[in-house]
Structures
1.
Amino acid sequence: MSQENVEIVLQSFRAFEAKDFEAIARMWHPNGRTTAPEGWPEPGPFEGRDAIVRQFRRLASDMGQQHLREVEIVAATDDWVVAAFLWEVRGAGSGAAVATKLAGAYRVRDGKLVEAHFRWTPEEALEAAGLSE
């Protein structure tokens, strides 16, 4: 089951990169929830599929281009997938390029994303998933 969940998380990465918000909406449970890393301008939490998709749309509206690179699956259990990645962004208006290392803890249930907690480090993401030692 965890390999299926890994694929769901990777599909969500591809959909976000492609700005395919309809696909993102189909992947999320109606009562999904996300949180942002400490210090993020819009920390949330974002409650419900509509709020999550709205936040992803808002983030994408600021970007001209974006890529998720160096994706590494840090942990995969029955419910949780923790991934670390490099998020490369080029501002839509400014053209400024930024690369940020992030990690996410994604809980998958019955083929749907139900939680995602974005953090600055894989260790923080593992903690958010309750998987830290």
2.
Amino acid sequence: MYDFVVNSMLGKLSKWLRVLGYSVFYNPRASDNELIRIAKNTRAPLITRDRELYSKAINDRVNTFLIKSTDIIDMLLLLHKKFNIRLDINFDLTRCSKCNAKLKRCDKSLIYDKVPKEILKRYNVFLVCPKCNSIYWPGKHYKNMILILKTVKELSSS
């Protein structure tokens, strides 16, 4: 089951939605027909920047949302207004930005040989993907995301 289906033009947005805890179908090689079929079967909104795909999906009676902006702040704000998406990162909900699997908290002793030593010293929270084995921690990228989400929240309340 997916919360959203996102086409290839919105790869960055799919990563954001996964970090926010949403299950997202994203495959840059998926055809328009495949995206429409998956959105229809899962009843997940299809999010796209492709006007042709948007029209095709509307004609197939798929819940579709056309995003015109390329700015992530605008995209998140639009999705918050349209679908009331969360604007907070909750590590218990976060999904792998690469493969969409739900991440699991992990003790650093289990990953000491997979993460640089300075990272192990600096951070105490680690998340591991049980599917692709990617490892995440709240480093600089996370702090930048928090700032972006703060901006989106401020814009949504004004």
